[in-house]
Design a protein that fits this description.
Blueprint: H1 9-17, H2 34-60, H3 64-81, H4 86-108, H5 118-128, H6 134-142, H7 154-165
Helix pairs in contact: 3-4, 3-7, 5-6
Amino acid sequence: MTPKPMSNQIPNQALEQLRDIHEAAPITNLPIALGWWLLLIALLGLTVFLAQAYAKHKKTNAWKAPAMNELEDIRQRYFKNSGLDGKLVAQTTADLSALLRRAMNTRYKDESCLTQTGKEWEATLLKAIPSFSQKEAQTIAHAQYQRQIPKLDHDCFEGIKRWIKSKG
């Protein structure tokens, strides 16, 4: 017996039994797991903390740039006029003293330094700015009251500059 040639019936039956392919439901990212929420909250808290710390740092040190500019101006006037006129040197030294008073008031939140004079102001200068020698503190504290003013050197101004830039 010879086999009958197959007709197209079997493939047609198989094709009819096939169903359309359906895509799976899309997987959503939400709601995210609890761990991700905790990480997000921690990062947000850290960001807020760092922003506040930066703002406090900027506010605390805002006085330093103007003080440095004024110190440089006083320094230039002092060394420009140091050999010419005693009154100009006395005025420049008084300006330096006023700058230091304002800087100490701002840095240490202590208004008493604004009204100190004489030996009391000299002692405050020596305590606050460790690089000062007794002679430098005495010159700054008493310059406006003296006829002969001892000269300040570049190291004195550098010490003030370091003090302004320092933390504290």
